[in-house]
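User: Could you write out the 3D structure of this protein bound to iron/sulfur cluster? I've included everything you need below.
Assistant: Certainly. Input first, then the structure.
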Amino acid sequence: MQKIKFRFKGDHVDSFAQLGTLRAVFVDLTNCCNLRCKYCFNYRSLQAPPSHLALDLIEKALRSKLAASVRDWFLSGGEPALYDRLPESLALFREHGLGPKIATNGTLLSPEIIDMWAGLGVRSLQFSLDTLDPEVHVDLNGGGKRGHETLLRNLEYAVQSPLRVVVSSVLTKPNKREIKNIMAFCFESGVDSYTLYPNVPSERLNQELIVPFPELLELTDELFSAYSALSPSKVLDVTIPCFAKSSTYAKWKDRLALRLHYCAAAQYALKITSDGRVSACICQDSDPFIIGDLRRDGLDDIWISEKARAFRSLYREIPECRACPESPVCRGGCRNNASLFGSNGLRSLDPYCRYFKSREESFDPTVPPSIDRTD
Ligand code: SF4
Ligand code: SF4
Ligand code: SF4
């Protein structure tokens, strides 16, 4: 997922991932959710009949050889609080000596649930908080004003609990002016980090909510400045492959510990959907992203399957990327964004990269680049 992560505590900094080694597994426990966020990247799955991930599939994943290298198990959905087997699934993780992380919209929690999750071995909670304004929550997230109040109360309670607490927002036009305040609110509330996700929906849906990329870069500059003044820790993680080409990056790279990461899809992360399919990308469950099915195959076989390998080396089939000297590290940027907004499906150029290329004088989008032998 493309993101900018502002760390407020210097004691928790992830190491860089090693390509080809599975490090993070995102587990959609259920496709049920009480909210209806307009940008929802699980939109398709939320339209399907309710499904809850079978416990034996979680067990199967945990028993795979690959599980030994997985550092983070992220339990998500839908809303994990609506998963009908949550206590049993947490017990399974505990049996394997693992403390998963849970991503929640926070509106269905209570102090009792938070304590129970902590007691069952949950390591950290990620709250989605897109706005501090209840009206915007109603409009953008489809929740009620009381739900928004509950979310803030639960967040406050969780910060005092033994859990590590992080917060994230999806950047959209309705909340773009608030992001700086949300970041400051998070810092003052004592959360560990604040993550901003550019809105990349899984469908061409509600596109009017998307903040255009040049504006995102301007906002980033403003946020970096605010973060720099606010937080004694100056460690930022940016997972927007083309960000290194921006003037914002050039301006801040020596003032902040700006760490650039590349797309994780099938490189070091994957997601298990609530019906047991395995997707390369955590934001997608459409067919081109599906690399296997846990109901049929084991995770070890899926990771080295033909489909997984093909996805991993997709960038070699994108004309612009084949000709790009940065392709061994960038590996084609974001395939989700590219397939949504490009004209060549999974093999389209990442639109953020296209933005930078269109500013290069020599770039002519109508002329295909010459193909070199980078592979
Ligand atoms: S393709 Fe990669 S960068 Fe894009 S949303 Fe998926 S995991 Fe994130
Ligand atoms: S809380 Fe998450 S799963 Fe639920 S509608 Fe919002 S983005 Fe989708
Ligand atoms: S051309 Fe492809 S590999 Fe090169 S920077 Fe752009 S997206 Fe990355």
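Residues 1-2, 200, 263-265, 281-283, 334-337 surround iron/sulfur cluster (ligand 1) (CB under 6 Å).
User: Perfect, thank you.
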